[in-house]
């Protein structure tokens, strides 16, 4: 059984940085996209960044140049480095692993809260 566990959220001041981690337990067979989504209060969940086998392949316009997605296959962990955080980045951040072809193979973490505030 596959489980994704996020960590690294918390309270950050505007302009600050934080790094989220997503540890993957269980085996993912085949090619998977590793992704970070976020959901702010009263808003729909949105895709923030996607990591494919070749590296990062997508960033939302709102985070380009500030966020970096990366992965460590040995540690079975996906990271989201967030710099220059803004109030609008406040959200619950979710880790996702989705098979590149069979999208029904779709796994989610429980989320980690990131709050950007003075």
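^ structure tokens above, recovered residues below v
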């Amino acid at each position: 059984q596959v489980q994704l566990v996020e960590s690294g959220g918390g309270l950050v001041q505007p302009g600050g940085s934080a790094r989220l981690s997503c540890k993957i337990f269980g085996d993912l067979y085949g090619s998977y996209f590793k992704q970070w989504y976020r959901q702010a209060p009263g808003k729909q969940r949105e895709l923030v960044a996607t990591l494919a086998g070749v590296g990062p392949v997508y960033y939302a316009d709102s985070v380009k140049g500030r966020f970096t997605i990366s992965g460590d296959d040995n540690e079975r962990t996906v990271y989201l480095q967030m710099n220059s955080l803004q109030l609008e980045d406040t959200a619950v951040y979710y880790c996702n692993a989705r098979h590149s072809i069979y999208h029904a193979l779709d796994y989610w973490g429980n989320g980690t809260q990131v709050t950007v505030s003075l």
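The chain has no helices and eleven strands.
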